[in-house]
Design brief:
With 592 residues, the protein is an alpha+beta fold. The chain has three domains: 2-134 and 177-297, Rossmann fold, CATH 3.40.50; 309-447, Jelly Rolls (Sandwich), CATH 2.60.120.260; 456-590, Sandwich (Jelly Rolls), CATH 2.60.120.260. Helix content is 17%, strand content 30%. It has nine helices and 23 strands. The chain has helices spanning 2-15, 38-42, 46-52, 71-88, 148-153, 184-198, 218-233, 260-273, 294-297, and strands at residues 28-33, 56-63, 101-105, 114-118, 123-130, 173-174, 181-182, 202-205, 239-242, 314-317, 346-347, 357-375, 383-392, 395-402, 413-432, 440-447, 461-464, 494-495, 504-522, 530-537, 542-545, 555-574, 583-590. It has a seven-stranded mixed β-sheet. Strands 10, 11, 12, 13, 14, 15 and 16 form a seven-stranded antiparallel β-sheet that branches. Strands 17, 18, 19, 20, 21, 22 and 23 form a seven-stranded antiparallel β-sheet that branches. α4 packs antiparallel against α8 (260-273). The longest helix has 18 residues, at 71-88. It starts with a helix and ends with a strand. The relative contact order is 0.09.
Length: 592
């Protein structure tokens, strides 16, 4: 029977059976973590809140969490995860929920991957079962010292650059159940397929910002780095967020911020899991033991990171080695390159070194406070120094020094500075290593602050030139804090009735608000697009707006701070003269 099941699943995967998300009117969340307790320790109580709110929740565990142990151990941990989700789904009263799980194909072509769905709930689990990387990313002897950290960096070393005997470059990894083999690019593609199949409006992972060797588990970071790349390729409107792991208590203890019933419920989920993990001591959840895992029960911290603005930029360069290594490859969301996948990096022409440059340009100012550089992964071509020049945005140009950009192991070189508006970011490469044959970058990421203050739109009174109330597309849907709309949930957007150019949306407050940025989300469909508009404020000032991103992704409009009691967005031009209506998926108004 087992063999027949595996054959059936294998054939379904080869045929590419699509596995769509179930009916999820409240919303859909996908969590992607490294081990079977990461979501329980580090994403709770948010996880419990989402389950109880009626959201569809799917968690993907990338590693087997095997710790180098035999099959019985990692399978028991999977049972522990199921026990925890059963506990989190138990009703407050009445008959208890039974531990009944349905197993189906995840619908990833050419892969044997199952989805485990808890019956009579909206939760499901996926286990990819790659080898656990051990505490510092060196891997375990039973799995040939392979690890996600080594797959990500392409090296045979752990986070401290220590190599285990007999190991070298890691090109691929086999799952501990021997059913799947992945290169880094293939793993990212599989995760993207899982995301696309499920269509989450919330995509969550671990710490995608912190560096390796910051005391968090390397598996946590590597899964999060990979998901940061996947996030850049997932085009459905959604929110992406990460959660801190061990660093909530190492090297310093952050304040406890999980209290009351949240702490009780989180502890119950962990208590359901604990008997299935023989590597955890019996007193792992003892609050009297300051060194126990209980310290993670009392804390939950999200990663302090803004969106990767590079995805919305246009990339140009001093030169390129060809179309397969164009400047745009430095903002494709995949931190790879030669000798692995040379089509995933920007490389200048042969012989190019000092004096080369890469520039990102936006049509409107972006608020920026951090740039991350990832050098080409080969051992020869390396940036030794440079300068980041930021310009535009109504302020004088500024320059930030760049030191040695680490290469070989995929580590990130982060340049931080005081936040400022800019329409261009240019990396001028000043010196390179003696062995450099063709300078370039695997990836550049540009970030702003995680938020820009209070979203005043949520407390505004909204009016519009017209609104399609018969289809639940009223003006109020533009300030419901949900970026959605047709061809998804059309009730999550504002749409006019026959309106085109000349349509408007107005937000008003009973007391004046300080504002310095408006973020506009066009309707999600790619037919109705705003090509130009104007923001007018109660103080008599106005700001011109160019075309909005056509897929519902944010179009930020930054301007000097002003005190206003209302703001009006007028649509001046649309893409199609024959479009039946115009509108917005969302408008957000921020202040300092």
């Amino acid at each position: 029977m087992i063999r027949k099941h595996l054959i059936a699943v294998f054939l379904m995967c080869l045929w590419g059976v699509a596995v769509a998300a179930p009916n999820c009117p409240v919303g859909t969340t996908m969590n992607v973590v490294a081990h079977q307790d990461d979501d329980l320790f580090f994403m709770n109580p948010d996880l419990i809140h989402e389950i109880r709110a009626g959201r569809c929740v799917r968690t993907v565990y990338v590693t087997a969490g095997d710790a180098g142990q035999p099959e019985a151990y990692w399978k028991s941990r999977e049972d522990g995860a199921k026990a925890a989700y059963l506990q989190m789904n138990q009703p407050p009263s009445g008959p208890p929920l039974l531990p009944s799980w349905n197993v189906s194909s995840a619908g990833v072509p050419g892969r044997v991957i199952d989805v485990h769905s808890l019956l009579n709930t909206k939760v499901s689990l996926v286990f990819l079962r790659l080898p656990d990387g051990a505490r510092w990313g060196g891997g375990n002897a039973s799995q040939g010292y392979k690890s996600l950290h080594k797959l990500w960096t392409g090296t045979g070393t752990d986070v401290w650059r220590t190599a285990e005997p007999g190991t070298g470059f890691i090109w691929d990894m086999k799952s501990v159940d021997n059913l799947n083999i992945y290169t880094l690019a293939q793993l990212q593609d599989v995760l993207l397929t899982l995301v696309n199949n499920y269509q989450p409006d919330r995509l969550k992972t671990l710490d995608h910002v912190g560096p390796h060797a910051d005391m968090d588990h390397p598996d946590h970071h590597t899964v999060a780095y990979i998901m940061d790349n996947v996030n850049g390729r997932y085009t459905t409107p959604h929110v992406f967020m990460g959660y801190r792991g061990y660093t909530v208590t190492y090297p310093v203890h952050l304040a406890e911020n999980v209290h009351g019933s949240d702490r009780t419920d989180k502890l119950k989920a962990m208590q359901a899991y604990l008997p299935y993990d023989s590597q955890l001591p019996a007193n792992a959840l003892d609050p009297s033991n300051v060194d126990s895992e209980y310290k993670w029960v009392t804390r939950q911290y999200k990663v302090n990171a803004g969106p990767n603005l590079a995805f919305t930029a246009t990339a140009t360069a001093s030169s390129t080695a060809g179309t397969s290594q164009a400047a745009s490859k430095a903002i494709d969301g995949v931190a790879q390159g030669y000798p692995y996948d040379a089509t995933r990096e920007w490389a200048a022409t042969s012989g190019a070194g000092a004096g080369s440059w890469l520039q990102l340009t936006w049509p409107s100012p972006q608020i920026i406070d951090r740039v991350t550089l990832i050098d080409r992964p080969n051992e020869y071509d390396q940036i030794m120094s440079g300068a980041l020049v930021l310009s535009g945005g109504g302020v004088a140009a500024s320059s930030e020094s760049v030191g040695v950009v680490e290469n070989l192991d995929g580590r990130r070189t982060v340049v931080e500075f005081a936040k400022r508006p800019a329409t261009t970011v240019r990396l001028n490469i000043q010196t390179v290593s003696a062995a450099t044959q063709s300078v370039g970058l695997s990836e550049i990421k540009v970030h702003g602050p995680p938020q820009f203050g209070t979203n005043h739109a949520l407390t505004a009174t909204v009016t519009a030139s017209s609104q399609s109330t018969s289809t639940s597309q009223s003006a109020a849907k533009a300030i419901d804090d949900v970026v959605g709309g047709y061809p998804g949930d059309s009730s999550k957007e504002w749409a006019t009735v026959g309106g085109q150019a000349g349509s408007w949306l107005r937000l008003a407050w009973s007391t004046a608000r300080k504002v310095n940025q408006v973020i506009l989300h066009d309707r999600v469909n790619t037919y109705d697009q705003v090509m130009s508009g104007k923001l007018t404020f109660s103080d008599g000032t106005s700001v011109d707006v160019g075309n909005l991103n056509d897929d519902g992704s944010p179009t930020p409009v930054v301007f000097p701070e002003r005190l206003v009691s209302w703001v009006k967005f007028e649509i001046l031009a649309v893409k199609n003269a024959n479009q039946s209506s115009t509108g917005l998926a969302e408008i957000r108004v921020f202040g300092p």
